[in-house]
Amino acid sequence: MDSILSVKGLSKRYGEFEAVRSLDFALVKGRATGLLGPNGAGKTTTLSMLSGLLPATSGSIQVAGDAGGDRRERIGYLPQHPVFFNWMTGREYMKFAGELFGLKGTKLRARAGDLLEQLGLADAARKRIGSYSGGMKQRLGIAQALIHRPELLILDEPVSALDPVGRRELIDLLQGIKRETTLLFSTHVLHDAEQLCDDILILNKGELAVQGQLAELRRLHGKPHLTVESEESLVEFAEAVRRNPAIRRIELSEDQRRLVLEADHVAQARDYLFAEIAQRRLPVQRFDAANASLEALFLEVVGA
Amino acid sequence: MRGWSVLFRKEWRESLRNFKLIWIPLVFLLLGVAQPVTSKLLPDLVKQAGNLPEGAVMVIPVPQPMEVLAGTLSNYSTVGLLVLVLATMAAVAGERSRGVTGMLMAKPISAAAYLSSKWSATVLLSTGSLVIGYLGAWYYTEILIGPIDAGLALQGLALYALWFAFYLTVTLVLSALMRSAVAAAAITLLSAALLAVLGSSLPQWMKASPGILTARAQELLLGGLAQGTGGSVLLPVCITGIGLILLMVVGIAVFRRLPLTPQDS
Fold first, then answer.
1. ipTM for the complex?
2. For chain A, how many helices (H) and strands (E)?
3. Is the pTM of this model over 0.95?
4. Are B100 and A40 within 8 A, CB to CB?
5. pLDDT, tens digit, for every residue of B52-63?
6. What is the DSSP secondary-structure string of A54-119?
7. Contact assignment for B260 to A54 by CB distance below 8 Å
């Protein structure tokens, strides 16, 4: 597997505080990687160092096949809160961004037009950016990051500031972009990561806790999970279930109406649970049997 | 420096869109024209006011032409500097705190191109405004008061232009290195005031100071600078020029190492 970017021993220290500690990872060409972690884990710090905005305290960042060149030439970057010159129009900003990469003339105009079209900003292209909504700014941010056809697109929390509709649209859009370029994005919305990522990196307290292919990680870390949700308290039910040796772990939510179980064999556990539920005539609202979700893995890793 | 011309054009367009390119030259022009006009009209105005006691005679002479130009420049060094420093203080600090700088520096732009494009736009605007205002003053002085020695007038202008460029460089570099635009402006204005006071109270010690440039320009215009004392001008000119370049070099070197993310933890 060809890596597009490799990071070795990357650290960032602010005085005594070590925001990021000795990261080692590589991004595989053509794949989408999600950078996950709780708030304050060092996601933004890491992405800022990769995009060249923040000098690293130590460690190296190497773009494949690049000897001493400016890696910013080959990376597109969108910060968490993209800000623009509000007096420019969307089209003017695209042109400005392209010129900074040395593009010009009809080629640049065509590229800018295509991207504005692709991101649904064609109608707004002549309006001042000051009048754009948050979602439009986010999309313009992605458009300007793609102007020079970067080999790697880095997005810092691209979806977290959007409403559900905007989020849906952006995910669909990123699905498309993913086919053209390598993608690295941070998020704390695990569901989005599950939809987009091939690989994941989980940061916790500045350290890389987990890295690998999403499918692989699920298989390795995740025992099958079963969830039962009921209208009534599940305390007694939980007591009964606990005695069954096929159930390995059991967790009752605080309001006592949600039970999460871990089992070695889903089918067996499911049959047992159904029988128990039927016998007790539990008013079940939801029953769910699935492989470990990213959320379960995440919580396990982060230790919350 | 590929990005330089792109950035410079952006600065220029921005000054046009926020009308800086119009109102700053206009302020300088008004200040410049006001000096000869009021000098000419003041005696008449006092006479017209007519509330002097019976028999009192108040003679206010119309000043010499070169005195009028010196007065104009003196206004520029106070009000003019204030206006320019306030217009420049947010050049970098404003963009940095909003996070625009982070968006820009993720693109292949060098710190040198980023800062020097801003410096060029700022100095061009200040020099242009100064020239426009000064020409206005010159024109009205010729019409209303009397002829002007062009050679001396231009030398005086050049000294002031350099003095402005120096303090605007100070503002710009401070704006790049500090989070607060207001602090950048305050430090510039305080240091300008301090150097001016030191220059007049300790002239022996301040011969090479940038703050002495305005005093030398005044002496030059008013004929107080004897022939053959060119050295007393050349020294501060050289020191100011070197200081200005050093400030930029240090500013760029430090800026390169700054975190450019808007809210760094």
1. 0.87
2. 10, 13
3. no
4. no
5. 666 666 677 778
6. S--SEEEEEETT-SS--GGGGEEEE-SS----TTSBHHHHHHHHHHHTT--HHHHHHHHHHHHHHT
7. yes
Q: What chain A residue is nearest to B109 in terms of C-alpha separation?
A: A100
Question: Which residues, other chains included, contact A47 with Cβ-Cβ below 8 Å and sequence gap of 6+?
Answer: A35, A77, A154, A156, A184, A186
CB within 8 A of A91, min separation 6: which ones?
Answer: A112, A113, A116, A125, A126
Output the CA–CA distances (angstroms, integers) from residue A187 to A112, A158, A160, A162, A270, in the order listed.
27, 7, 7, 12, 33
Sheet of A258-263, strands arranged across: A247-252, A258-263, A225-230, A284-290
Beta strands A199-204 and A32-36 are: parallel
CA-nearest of B258, B126, B106, B244 to B179 is B258
Which has the closest alpha carbon to B6: B116, B100, B93? B116
Question: What is the three-class DSSP state of A207?
Answer: strand
From residue B62, alpha-carbon distances to A116, A301, B39, B72, B139 in Å are 65, 85, 6, 15, 17
If phi > 0 it is left, if psi is from -120 to 50 it is alpha, else beta; for residue A212 that is left
Residues 141-200 of B with CB under 8 A from A: none
pLDDT tens, position by position, A84-140: 999 999 999 999 999 999 999 999 999 999 999 999 899 999 999 999 998 899 999
Q: pLDDT digit string (tens) for A173-200?
A: 899 899 889 999 998 888 888 888 999 9
Point out which residues pair with B246 in neighbouring strands. none
- Which residues of chain A make contact with B102, given a CB cutoff of 8 A? 48, 53, 79
Residues of chain B neighbouring A73 (CB-CB closer than 8 A): 108
DSSP A14: E
Q: Which phi-psi region, left, alpha or beta, contains residue A255 (left: φ > 0; alpha: ψ -120 to 50)? A: alpha
**Residue B106 and residue A72: Cβ atoms within 8 Å?**
yes
Q: Which long-range contacts (CB under 8 A, 24 or more apart) does A288-292 make?
A: A288/A225, A288/A226, A288/A227, A288/A228, A289/A224, A289/A225, A289/A226, A289/A227, A290/A224, A290/A225, A291/A218, A291/A219, A291/A222, A291/A224, A291/A225, A292/A218, A292/A221, A292/A222, A292/A223, A292/A224, A292/A225
**Whole-number Å distance between alpha carbons of A134 and B185:** 33
Q: Do A44 and B261 touch (CB under 8 A)?
A: yes
In chain A, which residues have their Cβ closer than 8 Å to the Cβ of B11? none
Interface test with A, best of B9, B14, B92, B107 (most A CBs within 10 A): B107
